[in-house]
Design goal:
The structure holds two protein chains of two kinds.
Chain A lengths: L3 E2 L4 E5 L4 E7 L6 E7 L6 E7 L4 E3 L3 E6 L4 E6 L8 E8 L8 E3 L3 E6 L1
Parallel strand pairs in A: 2-11
Antiparallel strand pairs in A: 1-3, 3-8, 4-5, 4-9, 6-7, 7-8, 9-10, 9-11
Chain B lengths: L3 E4 L2 E4 L5 E7 L5 E7 L5 E9 L2 E4 L6 E3 L9 E3 L8 E8 L7 E2 L3 E5 L1
Parallel strand pairs in B: 2-11
Antiparallel strand pairs in B: 1-3, 3-8, 4-5, 4-9, 5-6, 7-8, 9-10, 9-11
Classes of the chains: A mainly beta, B mainly beta.
Chain lengths: ~110, ~110
């Protein structure tokens, strides 16, 4: 079936570095994408979203890039801090019969070393 | 404080017993959702409800049941028919479908 997936399951960076987390999706009908952060034992928290009519969106220290041609999106975190250590998920709202369902990828573990 | 509460945080049950997980929100959201998360996995949708007295199956509804009698509440029952019930269960709500989902703290269910 169609799914949202991640290229890298783990990412380790030094404090102050920029982090890039990647995600590939396969549902060509997906038109709305979201990045979530999940700390251990907690529910996911919304980070940033992007719709398919955009290719870039910026938030506070985060940027999401969307490449519809290759069905790829990425989350860039500037000046990564130890508090950014968590699991990051991309998710997509599909179209058609999946309109009301948010599909999550496997997740990437980000570890930030002081 | 506005938010979503799930109780209890940890739940232990014997195999063959049904168990109901609580989810309450005071955000005045119409839509509510239940997800299951297994170790090293993303979230998978069990059931969702767009409005009171209405709900739809998600991707892994077998062995689960829900009700939506009140806007604030969306309890999930894990029945004995669920083959692998041990997991982390997350409830979420949103103003409507395709709106930002807010997640509760989760309930970790262990069935032995």
């Amino acid at each position: 079936g169609e799914s949202v997936g991640l290229h890298l399951p783990t990412l380790s960076v030094q404090e102050g570095d920029n982090s890039i987390i990647n995600c590939a999706y396969s549902n060509s009908a997906s038109d709305y994408f979201i990045w979530y952060k999940q700390e251990s034992g907690k529910g996911p928290q919304f980070i940033i979203d992007i719709r398919s009519n955009m290719d870039k969106r910026q938030g506070q220290r985060v940027t999401v890039l969307l490449n519809k041609t290759v069905k790829h999106l990425s989350l860039q975190i500037a000046a990564t801090q130890p508090g950014d250590s968590a699991v990051y998920f991309c998710a997509d709202w599909g179209g058609g019969t999946s309109y009301g369902k948010l599909t999550f990828g496997q997740g990437t573990i980000l570890t930030v070393h002081p | 404080d506005g938010g979503i509460t799930q109780s209890p945080k940890y739940l232990f049950r014997k195999e063959g017993q049904n168990v109901t997980l609580s989810c309450e929100q005071n955000l005045n959201h119409d839509a509510m959702y239940w997800y299951r998360q297994d170790p090293g996995q993303g979230l998978r949708l069990i059931y969702y409800s767009q409005i009171v007295n209405d709900f739809q199956k998600g991707d892994i509804a077998e062995g689960y049941s829900v009700s939506r009698e009140k806007k604030e509440s969306f309890p999930l029952t894990v029945t004995s028919a669920q083959k692998n019930p041990t997991a982390f269960y997350l409830c979420a709500s949103s103003l409507g479908l395709r709106k930002e989902q807010y997640f509760g703290p989760g309930t970790r269910l262990t069935v032995t």
